[in-house]
Amino acid sequence: MIRTLALTNDDKLVKHIQLDQIHDPSIQYYWIDFNCPSEEEALLLQSSFHFHPLAIEDCFHFLQRPKLDYYEGYSFFVLHSLNRQTLEAEEVDLFIGENYIVTFHFHPSAAIDKVWEKLLHTPSIQEKGISYLAYSVMDKVVDEYFPTVYQIEDELNDIENIDAKKSISVLMEDVFKLRSDLLKIRRTILPMRDLLYRVINSERLDVHPEQKRYFKDVYDHLLKLADMIESNREMTSDMRDNYLSLNSNRMNSIMMTLTVISSIFIPLTFIVGVYGMNFKNMPELKWHYGYFFVLGFMGLITLGLILWFKRKGWFNTDKE
Known about the structure:
By secondary structure, the protein is an alpha+beta fold. Among the domains are: 1-126, 2-Layer Sandwich (Beta Polymerase, domain 2), CATH 3.30.460.20; 251-311, Methane Monooxygenase Hydroxylase, Chain G, domain 1 (Up-down Bundle). The chain has ten helices and seven strands. A seven-stranded mixed beta sheet has the order 2-1-3-7-6-5-4, sandwiched between helices. Helix 4 (110-121) packs across helix 6. 24% of the residues are buried.
């Protein structure tokens, strides 16, 4: 689907203009949106607008890294929006000329839709020109990142309140899943941050210095997002280390218990093994009190080992 908007010289916003009318002298500027275009519609980038073949190739070969290319008479932007369900990047391409903006995307874009509706219903931004529209699109694309990052941050805060009934393995699965989600978002945000840095420092873009402050604001948002991502990744690393340490301490406690039990039963097993041998000449076997003496001796060994282990501090394990 192709959507069209045009602002005439008498400041009237006109919808659904034909592509052969975009060069009418009465049009101040226009916006063409290729929204999930068909194959025939996508070919209009070449036949109607005569954009450079390399820029058109970038539109068709998903997924390009966010970037800015300069061509004669226009600039070409590749932006990445974020799919909230899959957290995968979705490409949004912008062609920005002196009096036009052409957006191209194969996936529905909430950011484009919001700016489109805002332009239709807010006369104050219609007179601000193409640069402001480009800023608005970038700003909405970046704003779409925040809910996902905040959601992950909330989930991490919930995990910090460890449920004693929840196993370590389940908690670790949650942490690693969130860490994987953060890495996906990071692969989108950092290239976008680099792109905005290039935009605000570019001398070739036809942007008034006053309007560059708007792009600087988008860059500041991306810096904040990048800091949040890194902070949350560090939090997942700390959680992972804490859970591994907790699991290791539990295993050490279990092994300590098993070691104490084994150490106590080793001498007892030895005594039982000795008197289990089938030799006829074993005087203790015919002793009237031999059974009670051996049991008492085994009890003394057990008590002695327990006291000795206690003195060595084997029972002074930290309580969880």
